[in-house]
């Protein structure tokens, strides 16, 4: 097993750990830092670590030529589950800011892109992440961390702008995947 794949598996392992933390009763006390509860702080720290492993495993896979079929399958899946876990947690914590409709846009985009990639694999085509897809991922990670840390004590408008910028880039990158791969989709109909 490659180092890159081990890092991806580690990221997958961190996701249930994040979920378990928010249900441990003893971690619900306020900690006096950014009005956070201990469970939320730990969730956020693990989310940051997991997010960094996303960039690390890709870097290692490319630099040391460790790109594998397993990695091509698991890495994007791990990313999607990690991001959706954070979105759903925030939707519960702050439903007035992280709305159901916005989270549904993210979920629909992720299913759509995964479907397009599956159709492309059948045709022997590999779809690499686009510039918009990478920008969407980076913006989404920053927005989620910002919101998880209660806006770092700054005005909520900053977090809202980051959040909606991530949603806009989610739509743009999803449409880009669709239009760039329209031929693969139409051949499958």
From TrEMBL:
Its main location: membrane. It is a multi-pass membrane protein. The lineage of its organism: Bacteria, Bacillati, Mycoplasmatota, Mollicutes, Acholeplasmatales. It is an enzyme of class 2 (transferase). Keywords: Cell membrane, Lipid biosynthesis, Lipid metabolism, Membrane, Phospholipid biosynthesis, Phospholipid metabolism, Transferase, Transmembrane, Transmembrane helix. GO terms for biological process: glycerophospholipid biosynthetic process. This is CDP-diacylglycerol--glycerol-3-phosphate 3-phosphatidyltransferase. The chain crosses the membrane at residues 7-26, 38-56, 77-94, 161-179. The keyword NAD does not apply. Gene3D superfamilies: 1.20.120.1760. This protein catalyzes the committed step to the synthesis of the acidic phospholipids. Belongs to the CDP-alcohol phosphatidyltransferase class-I family. One of its GO terms (cellular component) is plasma membrane. The gene is pgsA. It is found in: Cell membrane. Its EC number is 2.7.8.5.
């Amino acid at each position: 097993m490659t180092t890159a794949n081990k890092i991806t598996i580690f990221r997958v392992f961190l996701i249930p750990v994040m979920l378990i933390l928010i249900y441990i009763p003893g971690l619900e006390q306020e900690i006096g830092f950014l009005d956070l509860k201990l469970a939320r702080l730990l969730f956020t720290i693990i989310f940051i670590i997991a997010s960094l492993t996303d960039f690390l495993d890709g870097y290692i896979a490319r630099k040391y030529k460790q790109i594998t079929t397993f990695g091509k399958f698991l890495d994007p899946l791990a990313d999607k589950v990690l991001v959706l876990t954070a979105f759903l947690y925030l939707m519960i914590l702050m439903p007035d800011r992280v709305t159901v409709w916005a989270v549904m846009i993210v979920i629909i985009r992720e299913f759509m892109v995964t479907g397009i990639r599956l159709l492309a694999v059948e045709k022997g085509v590999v779809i690499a992440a686009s510039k918009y897809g990478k920008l969407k991922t980076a913006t989404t990670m920053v927005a989620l961390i910002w919101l998880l840390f209660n806006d770092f004590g700054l005005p909520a408008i900053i977090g809202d702008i980051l959040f909606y910028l991530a949603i806009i880039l989610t739509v743009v990158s999803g449409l880009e995947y669709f239009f760039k791969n329209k031929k693969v989709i139409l051949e499958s109909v």
